[in-house]
Write a structure and sequence with these properties.
- The chain is α/β, with parallel strands linked by helices and 345 residues long.
- The protein has one domain: Rossmann fold, CATH 3.40.50.
- It is built from eleven helices and eleven strands.
- Helix 1 packs across helix 3, helix 3 crosses helix 11 and helix 6 packs parallel to helix 7.
- It starts with a strand and ends in a 9-residue tail after the last helix.
- 48% of the residues are buried.
Amino acid sequence: MKMILVSVFMLEVVAFLGACSSDDKSEPEKQQSEITEEVVEESFAVKEIEGTLFVADFSVAKEDVLRSIPQKYIDIARQNLHIAYQHTSHGTHVSRGLYGLPDYKDGDAELFAITIDAPEENKLDFDDCTLENYAEPGKRAVDLSRDETAFIQATRNYLDDKDNADVNVVMWSWCNIAGHDVEGNYLPGMKTLIDEYGVGGSKIGDGDGLRKNAVVFIFMTGHANRGSNTGDGNPKEQAKLITDYCNANNYMCLDYYSIDTHCMEDNYWEDAGDDGSSTAYDGNFYKDWQNAHQLGVHYYENKHAPGGDVEFGSHTEQHITSNRKAYAMWWILARISGWDGESAE
């Protein structure tokens, strides 16, 4: 099954939008943003993804990469994507990073606006931890690790509910990926859902029992385990299975393992855990980087909810891990929204 991409048949909008909005933009720029918003809302559709970049690893989980994304793709994502995300504790690295980002720098409150479980105009619609309520009786579909196949039917039940008809992005997070059957359960399970609910899927259409909106399924690798990343069934090998599969099939993937094991200087620490701690590094590379940099300039505080209390991602004691995973997530959303992952326009 082919992956999906957002196709937006734009009207004659020719002004270039900057990579980051600000509060003091000129009136012509405001008018351009209004035109873009109107066009996106009227002509949004999904189709296959193009380009060559599909895995959001350490190399894209950076603020300078986020700021280089053409604003029009951030706008398209924010205004048109409706995301269902299911996770337990480790999955909060993404959600709390996304919730804190709007409070980071001037313009971010509009550019990266987000809501939880209650759609609002011109904000990213983020349905957090609702999929688990659709699990089959007797099954625990709280993440990918509790019951390895429960996510398949829970996702079907969720997407078949007319109350979720606008949802067009689904992502499930792992707890601990070690020892799980990625090849036998996760990859074929995701492929089954893509074949059914992706573009051209067997459950997409206008007839009875079909849903109109196709769905993007974002793959994820598992978090790093300190001192236990290598060997069969452990995070490094499991991550390679997933990223190789996504690259071969043009599927988007958020690579937790890569982000957990690469410091801000792009060095790889194979024994690192999920918080940046590494014996080979002789400390915690994310804590050290945070302590050497300025809050509000080089990093931001993660939040429990949009505008809510400051809170680290679970199992971490610094903000950098969740910051980076939020940057990676927005990179993926821009890719889904039509960006090739490389161009400046």
